[in-house]
Task: inverse folding
């Protein structure tokens, strides 16, 4: 049977998910996920997505599915839709929340596809908020604070929020990683945070391009010495940030161009 190339799907373990299978998940919050953009039926940084799912499953469930099993489920969802799409893969325990599941409760995989996205145009103004995520190294669900602080930021006429840890260090945005430019090197914030897949792609491709990178603590008072800033996630390798709280950041078109060049250097891979 020929696939409908305009179909977006919601599948559980490779099969179309039913309402009865999905309804318990609507009331649950113990799961983790990864989000990716598919272009031409292929994915950048697939190894990073698989590594993220493997690590998070071991953290949350004490076990992880084989990469090939995950790839099989991703492949089925990709093949069912158009060449370009957004894909979200969520892993959860069939034992549900508020239980200590044993090794027999193998994680299950929920995959959802949707139209492709490239993110907002920018530049963005970000409202700094003191907040530290629980298990920051895991991309987990049920994070009410992200949307809560986004709503508060927009009410204050910002575009989004950005997080400060208790030491005053910038860490990450609601759904973004941060990067800065000092005029010669890429500066990654030093703090507990989720290491994004796009961030991972850029770090290895910038290294291959011979671009200097360093990781350091970045506070609001440090921003005036920097030459530009961006946010990034699965949508895009870089959207300009022109203000964080009261501090303005200069335009850095060369920095944006460099990040996009590095991102494009990462080969797309078939699932």
Result:
């Amino acid at each position: 049977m020929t696939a409908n190339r305009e179909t977006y799907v919601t599948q559980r373990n490779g099969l179309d998910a039913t309402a009865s299978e999905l309804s318990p998940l609507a009331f649950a919050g113990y799961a983790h996920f990864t989000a990716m953009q598919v272009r031409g039926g292929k994915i950048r940084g697939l190894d990073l997505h698989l590594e993220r799912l493997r690590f998070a499953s071991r953290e949350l469930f004490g076990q992880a599915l084989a990469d090939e099993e995950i790839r099989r489920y991703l492949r089925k969802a990709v093949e069912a839709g158009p060449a370009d799409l957004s894909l979200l893969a969520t892993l959860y325990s069939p034992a549900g929340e508020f239980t200590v599941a044993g090794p027999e409760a193998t994680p299950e995989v929920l995959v959802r596809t949707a139209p492709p996205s490239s993110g907002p145009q920018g530049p963005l103004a970000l409202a700094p908020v003191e907040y530290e995520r629980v298990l920051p190294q895991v991309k987990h669900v049920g994070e009410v604070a992200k949307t809560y602080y986004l709503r508060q930021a927009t009410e204050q006429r910002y575009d989004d929020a950005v997080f400060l840890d208790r030491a005053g260090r910038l860490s990450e945005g609601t759904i973004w990683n941060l990067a800065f430019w000092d005029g010669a090197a890429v500066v990654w914030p030093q703090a507990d945070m989720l290491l994004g897949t796009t961030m991972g792609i850029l770090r290895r491709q910038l290294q291959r391009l011979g671009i200097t990178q360093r990781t350091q603590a970045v506070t609001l008072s440090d921003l005036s010495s920097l030459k530009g800033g961006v946010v990034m996630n699965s949508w895009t390798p870089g959207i300009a940030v022109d203000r964080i709280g009261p501090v303005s950041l200069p335009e850095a078109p060369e920095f944006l161009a460099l990040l996009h060049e590095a991102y494009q250097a990462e080969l797309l891979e078939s699932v």
Notes: Residues 15 and 169 are 44 Å apart (CA to CA).
